[in-house]
Amino acid sequence: MQELTALTRRAALAILAATISSPAFANHPGENLDARMFEMEPYFQAIDAAQAPGFELQDSEGNPVRLSDFSDKVVILHFIYANCPDICPLHAEKIAAVQASINDGPMKELVQFISITTDPVNDTPDVLRDYSDRHGLDPSNWVILTKRPDQTENATRVLARDYGLEFTMTADSDMMMHGAVTHVVDIGGRFAAKFHGMDFKNVNLILYVSELTNNAQHRRREPSWWDRLTGVFQ
């Protein structure tokens, strides 16, 4: 019996080695995605944190919205404020162009776009409702969020800081000093990556998101190597 068990375990290890080295396993969608994107896009930063900072905010109609509501989708998230005179509108329009390309194909149902205002005092519900029309965003898979009534005025700026982005109030105006970062949250809530600034190529963000969605579909479709290994002993 011990000899049989040893042979069975050796057979399982052989199956595992063959599985890992097989072309189907080696070329699965998403393999080395971050490394490939780093070579293609100088403004790409891999994060690969187990979970992106969570939140519970509200939309322009007062409905509660959580990041976890979109755990079955890739989330493209950025921070803005409506009165920003320079980078915010340009960033929103860049996101809108990416969204238009994604929504032109089958990925539309797998990707959610989120804008979060860091100026909830001035960005009233009417201002937020007008934002999509001004910048060409499609509300079918995009939402703009603000703080809840029970949260402090700087709640979304604190959230931006959790994502590694500072919005700093200037002393002599209502403007805020800040950068532009596009955050990508993978299906399941993993904080996947950031695309920095305004000069990244839209197509690279689209390709990155496409690979994430393909990888998620592959994981649902194929058993893992652990499933294959443990199945031998069942």
UniProtKB/TrEMBL annotation:
- Write down the SUPFAM superfamilies for this protein, in alphabetical order: Thioredoxin-like
Whether Metal-binding counts among this entry's keywords is yes
Q: Which domain of life is it from?
A: Bacteria
MF GO annotations: metal ion binding
Q: Name one Pfam family in it.
A: SCO1-SenC
Q: Which CDD domains match?
A: SCO
**Annotated signal peptide:** 1-26
Q: Give the intrachain disulfide bonds.
A: 84-88
Q: In which residues is Cu cation bound? A: 84, 88, 178
What sequence ranges are listed for the domain Thioredoxin?
A: 46-214
Coiled coil region boundaries: none
Keywords of this entry: Copper, Disulfide bond, Metal-binding, Plasmid, Signal
**What InterPro entries does the record tag this protein with?**
SCO1/SenC (IPR003782), Thioredoxin-like_sf (IPR036249), Thioredoxin_domain (IPR013766)
Gene3D superfamilies in UniProt: Glutaredoxin
Similarity comment: Belongs to the SCO1/2 family.
Protein's name in the database: Cytochrome-c oxidase
